Amino acid sequence: MIQIVVHHLVQRENGLMVDKNMLLKKDNHNIIYSDNFIVYIPYKAIKQKVISLEFNQNFLDICHFFNTFFIDRTKNIDSKIYILDSIPKNYNSSYSFDEVCDISAKEIVSKALFFETEINLLWSGGIDSTTALIAIYKELKSINKTEYLKIILSKESIEEFENFFTNFIKKNIVYKIFTPPIFTALNKNNLTITGELGDQIFGGNMVYDYMSRADIFDNWREPFSDIVYRKFKYLNKVDSCIDFTQSFMKRAPFELKSLYDVLWWFSFASKWQVVQFTLISQTYQEGVLQFRLGDNIIHFFNHIEFQKWAIRNRINQTKYDIYNYKFQAKEYIYDFFPDKNYLLKKQKEKSLKKVISGTAFSFL
């Protein structure tokens, strides 16, 4: 066994940046990758007890309940993780959802033009990546630079939105069809764009999985208690989960009234950083990590104006069902490509899971 000192505990669901004085043990296998800024620790390092991180049971229960590592961006619950993006304190803005899409696209295109690099957009056929594709294409079209855009897609992408592929992508944009896992299709020298974090803007699986409940917009306490109980089957777990997260919930920028609000807040305020690095961690292969957030990989919805919009949208208590979920994004798509069936019937799908199978490493 070799002892090494690594730098500053941060997380990535995915990997951890560890505190400067924290001592890790590393075996003879190359299971820990580091660069000048980040140390990534694969989940197997935890399982094999190469590194031990101590968390109290309430914290672990919350992670288990939401099936994700809990990183409190309000900094009220200590997950031993460095927070990269705090929640904006000032969320006043007059920008509409459509305008924020255009703002994000303009910044991405400006970066690509400045570095003269190709834009590789990962298109799943879903609502988030289609929104990103349209916004970036429109910006490039306005300056006659559409040759900068290349779409990376799979056969599942085509099946998810075949009309758009056949009648728009195929006729207007260079594309590449890949076979999962996704990292085999990525080029570190290009600018990779994803639709990730779109889920966190609207609530993601935490919300969508409970959308069919009749009480999704009722006062949160009773239905939240019910779903916690269904998960653990112990009443004491219900009380401990609620008690443990009360301070976190009180840090929301508005009163959390409904079950939807509470689940959205958990996704928005505690899952954001996990999602930022999920795809990046999947590119990790035997000590090689070629993608870095904000450098050669950008999530289209990772923009502060989207966060501000998301907060305002919840304050206004927008109500969704399985068909009008993310209707603002679907209307943005419809205005560009009027597919009425997609507008009225398209539902959320867990697209990322379709394209990351076969990855060699799974990070904490």
Q: Could you give the topology of this structure?
A:
Blueprint: E1 2-5, E2 9-12, E3 15-18, E4 23-26, E5 33-34, E6 39-40, H1 43-47, H2 57-66, H3 97-115, E7 119-122, H4 127-142, E8 149-153, H5 155-160, H6 162-172, E9 174-177, E10 191-194, H7 198-202, H8 204-208, H9 221-232, H10 235-250, H11 259-270, H12 272-282, E11 297-299, H13 304-315, H14 327-336, H15 340-345, H16 352-355
Parallel strand pairs: 7-8, 7-10, 8-9, 10-11
Antiparallel strand pairs: 1-4, 2-3, 5-6
Task: Summarize the model shown.
With 364 residues, this protein is α/β, with parallel strands linked by helices.
Question: What can you tell me about this protein's structure?
Answer:
This protein has 364 residues and is α/β, with parallel strands linked by helices. The chain has one domain (57-69, 83-364): 3-Layer(aba) Sandwich (Rossmann fold). 44% of the residues lie in helices and 11% in strands. The chain contains 16 helices and 11 strands. It has helices at residues 43-47, 57-66, 97-115, 127-142, 155-160, 162-172, 198-202, 204-208, 221-232, 235-250, 259-270, 272-282, 304-315, 327-336, 340-345, 352-355; strands spanning 2-5, 9-12, 15-18, 23-26, 33-34, 39-40, 119-122, 149-153, 174-177, 191-194, 297-299. It has a 5-stranded parallel beta sheet. A hairpin with a 4-residue loop joins β5 and β6. α2 (57-66) packs across α10 (235-250). It is globular. The model is unreliable at 1-38 and 356-364 (pLDDT under 50).
